[in-house]
Amino acid sequence: MSADSSQQARSQRLPPWLRVKTGKARLSRQTRELVHSHGLHTVCEAAKCPNIGECYSHNTATFMILGDTCTRNCAFCAINHGQPQRVDANEPARLAEAAADLGLRYVVVTSVTRDDLPDGGAGQFAATIRAIRQRLPGVKVEVLTPDFLGDLSVLQIVLQAEPDVFNHNVETVRRLQPTIRPQAGYDRSLEVLQAAGQAGMRTKSGLMVGLGETDDEVQQTLEDLAAVGVSIVTIGQYLQPSRRHIPVARYVPPEQFEVYAGMARQAGIRKALCGPFVRSSYRAAECAG
Known about the structure:
Layout: H1 3-11, H2 25-37, E1 41-42, H3 43-46, H4 52-56, E2 62-65, E3 69-70, E4 80-81, H5 91-102, E5 106-111, H6 122-135, E6 140-144, H7 152-159, E7 165-167, H8 177-180, H9 186-198, E8 202-209, H10 215-227, E9 232-237, H11 254-267, E10 271-274, H12 284-288
Parallel strand pairs: 2-5, 3-4, 5-6, 6-7, 7-8, 8-9, 9-10
Antiparallel strand pairs: 1-2
Helix pairs in contact: 5-6, 6-7, 10-11
């Protein structure tokens, strides 16, 4: 994409297919208040997810553990970064109780990245999985984890708690990694996903489009994910959270997402949820089914 066309994408208004979804305000408010009453965070709010109204009005939320402040500062992400809070040992029990209050049968748990912790927060993930299962027998749990700096021994702490789905996002194509997530790495993410798959986990990953990637690069990314055993993929449109974040390079039309889904299936990925508003945990239970 040329500099002129990139600038045009940055300045143009959102296309009609990117009108923000809404849900029933009263039901959305009830979910938000319940989450807050348990002293919890959601990535839905922290990351300014465009699906928050839809999901909250259906009594679903993606819980975010280990506080609301990340030790990394990725170019695309709206989550606060800086000095994080101490780990709250009571957080797993409160989260499990909130999941019970919401009537969830499929719980998605993610976190801020905690490079300051010796285990990267893996122990808190494991404790949360166990607390949910103790409070809600028969519930399914999906985790969306950071890369734990590539420490596969730490990763095992999460895997030994046996989540039903292990999710870790590559976020973008290989070429754009240094710009989009400079504190992470494409190969490191693939290694984490491969290790989880080799441990018997169903693995999932996601990426954004509209950051300057080409369709050929998207296809290569899908082939790389399939090669390490990933069976579920999500692809969605990047939307700039604020002016200080990296600008949108292009708005991908809805029909192109159908092409991406076909690419994923051709690569050998069993399930691909692709669309402008798709995010990592969007309709997670449906993807896992």
